[in-house]
Design brief:
Number of helices: 6
Strand content: 15-25%
CATH topology of the domain at 1-115: Leucine-rich repeat, LRR (right-handed beta-alpha superhelix)
Shape: globular
Keywords: Cell membrane, Glycoprotein, Leucine-rich repeat, Membrane, Receptor, Repeat, Signal, Transmembrane, Transmembrane helix
Number of strands: 48
Membrane topology: Single-pass type I membrane protein
Pfam families: LRR_1, LRR_8
CATH class of the domain at 1-115: Alpha Beta
Family: Belongs to the RLP family.
Structural class: alpha/beta
Subcellular location: Cell membrane
Distance between the termini: 125 Å
CATH architecture of the domain at 1-115: Alpha-Beta Horseshoe
Length: about 650
């Protein structure tokens, strides 16, 4: 691999026809290289490939002097500045790729002079301004136009007919709307189309769905397109997420591999899509989350043998998880935020799950022990907000790659397993592959409560390490072994029945950013080692039985008073002075002090006495009819006696 700058002797290669120095670590200014090449080999150089290097600087007018250049690739460098207008002088240029640089300025009009140009790729730059029909006036041979992720605007006349017949058009993140681009109807050879995030709105035109070509890749995501879709004639990948499509799910080509319909308003059931034997045979990714799909998940997944990622979260699904889902080789199963119920089918243990998200449903039963059988794969488990009970199975400790464990808001009891220390990826700094990536611009996502707020994590999910066991019925002490999880960023044990002291060694978790131990029965002092947590930006130990002085550190004194209330603590940031021998407690409604306990029991006794006395009289009258009749007859008799008495008094 070449490193550093190119030698100045390059200018003496007068008969050089082709130079390929791609995939090296060549540094220096591109302008110097162009200047050297223009001195001697102006008429000989036909191909120049310096992609995937570390070139910087600006493109200069000398580029237009290399007259016979037909192939130019400077992709994936650090080249900045505008594209020189002299580019239009390269009449032989067929291939031009400056993608993934830092080019800015406008798109030169001189591109319209490149009659031989077949491939034009300048995606992932900072070009801006308006693109005109004139830019394409003579590009009759253009077959590939890849220019996504720039700041360009293209709104040609509705009657414009492009001079080219492209096979690939990628204009994602351009401004093409608000109307659907009419000029696309004249593209008869189109296989790849990306017009995502382009400000397009309105109903999808029928002519587009009836184009004679079969797409291999179609990306219309992040627009405001509406209407229904009956059939998608796409061979490999469809991405329609984040639009306003409605109606039943579309029929798809039998060999489709990726179907991404997230965040729309599709409705109806899954039956026709899932149980149709002609669909799903090669499907690898199925994302229909954040729609209005209803009914049960059908039990006919056996022919979806290539399906790896299934996301049906945030719909209106009911019923149980069908057993056939466990007969396919799923790596991701997301059923978050539905109304499903029942116990988890044992067939799921046959899957090779990396992520299991069943949060915000009504699943019940115990957390199955088999969840830890596949010790090499599971990285994310979220069973949050369900009705799971029983103990935390010790088999979870065998999940060496586990990064996120969320069992919050269930009915789980028992103690926190000491074997949590075996959760290797939470305890060791090791290389983590980017397992979150799904396809272009699409990542696995999970809804997590970190730092006191709920957010959806996508591209950054791989950076999160978290344990959330909050709002359960866990008892016992916080095991000191948990402090061995030194890679953990977030730990939430709030809202349980935990007792004992906060482990003294908790300060070993130096990467901790969020720690919540509130609303338990913890006692003792806050460990001095907590002052070592320099990254801590969310901390809560409120409503426990903690005593003593809050340790002094930059972090612990920066939190609000409510992080400490409901304890017997003193010192900054609280106003209570620790020098006072008998400082008052700020216990609020937790009944932790002796006097508070007496007062509370007095109130309890009064209430219990009243209830028992009241029901001791009322209950027999309510449930025993003869007693009730006798009671009311007696009342009538007393009332009559009183009436006669007062009548005689008036006389």
């Amino acid at each position: 691999m070449l490193e550093g700058r190119l030698p100045t002797s390059l200018e003496y290669l007068c008969k050089l026809k082709e130079m390929d120095l791609s995939y090296n670590k060549i540094e220096g200014g591109i302008s110097e290289i162009l200047q050297s090449l223009s001195r001697c080999c102006l008429g000989s150089l036909e191909s120049l490939d310096m992609s995937n290097n570390q070139l910087s600087g600006h493109l200069t007018y000398q580029l237009g002097q290399i007259k016979n250049l037909s192939y130019l690739s400077l992709a994936q460098n650090k080249i900045s500045g505008p594209i020189p207008s002299s580019i239009g002088e390269l009449s032989s240029l067929k291939f031009f790729d400056v993608s993934e640089n830092q080019l800015n300025g406008t798109f030169p009009l001189s591109f319209g002079q490149l009659e031989s140009l077949e491939t034009l790729d300048f995606r992932n730059n900072l070009l801006e301004g308006v693109v005109l029909e004139t830019h394409f006036s003579n590009l009759t041979r253009l077959t590939t136009l890849t220019a996504s992720h720039n700041r360009l605007r293209f709104e040609p006349n509705s009657s414009w007919i492009p001079p080219f017949q492209c096979e690939t058009i990628e204009l994602g993140h351009w401004h093409l709307g608000p109307k659907f681009p009419q000029w696309l109807k004249f593209q008869k050879k189109l296989f790849v189309l990306d017009i995502s995030n382009a400000g397009i709105s309105g109903v999808m035109p029928t002519w587009f769905l009836n184009l004679p070509t079969q797409f291999e890749y179609l990306n219309l995501s992040f627009n405001q397109l509406t209407g229904g879709i009956s059939y998608l004639n796409v061979k490999d990948i469809v991405d329609l997420r984040s639009n306003q499509f409605r109606g039943p799910l579309p029929r798809v080509f039998r060999n489709l591999q990726h179907l991404i319909l997230s965040n729309n308003s599709f409705s109806g059931s899954l039956f026709e899509l899932v149980c149709n034997s002609s669909s799903g045979e090669l499907m690898e990714v199925l994302y229909i989350d954040k729609n209005l799909i209803s009914g049960e998940i059908p039990d006919c997944w056996n022919h979806w043998q290539d399906l790896g990622l299934l996301d049906l979260g945030s719909n209106n699904l009911t019923g149980k998880i069908p057993p056939s889902l466990g007969h396919i080789n799923l790596t991701v199963l997301n059923l978050r935020n539905n109304s499903m119920f029942g116990e988890l089918p044992s067939t799921l243990q046959n899957s090779s799950l990396v992520m299991l998200d069943l949060s915000e449903n009504h699943f019940n039963g115990s957390v199955p022990a088999w969840i830890g059988d596949n010790s090499s794969l599971l990285r994310i488990i979220s069973l949050r907000s369900n009705n799971f009970d029983g103990h935390i199975p010790h088999k979870i400790c065998d999940l060496l790659n586990l990064l996120i464990l969320d069992l919050a808001h269930n009915n789980i009891s028992g103690t926190i397993p000491k074997c949590f220390r075996k959760l290797y990826s939470m305890a060791n700094r090791n290389y983590r592959e980017n397992y979150m990536y799904v396809s272009e611009g699409l990542y696995l996502s999970a809804l997590l409560v970190l730092k006191g707020r709920q957010d959806e994590y996508g591209a950054t999910l791989g950076l999160v390490t978290s344990i959330d066991l909050s709002t359960n019925s866990l008892t016992g002490e916080i095991p000191k072994e948990i402090a061995r999880l030194v890679e953990l960023r977030s730990l939430n044990l709030s809202g349980n029945l935990l007792t004992g002291n906060i482990p003294d060694n908790i300060g070993n978790m130096k990467l901790m950013e969020s720690l919540d131990l509130s609303m338990n029965r913890l006692n003792g002092e806050i460990p001095l080692s907590l002052s070592n947590l320099n990254f801590l930006n969310h901390f809560n130990v409120s409503y426990n039985n903690l005593t003593g002085q809050i340790p002094t550190s930059t972090q612990l004194q920066s939190f609000e008073n409510f992080s400490y209330m409901g304890n017997h603590l003193c010192g900054p940031p609280l106003t209570k002075n620790c020098s006072t021998k008998d400082f008052s407690t700020d216990v609020e409604n937790n009944g932790s002090s002796g006097e508070g306990s007496k007062v509370n029991w007095l109130y309890v006794s009064i209430v219990v006495g009243f209830v028992m006395g009241f029901w001791g009289v009322v209950a027999p009258l309510f449930f025993i009819r003869p007693w009730r009749h006798a009671y009311y007859r007696k009342l009538d008799h007393i009332y009559a006696k009183l009436y006669v008495f007062w009548a005689n008094m008036d006389m």
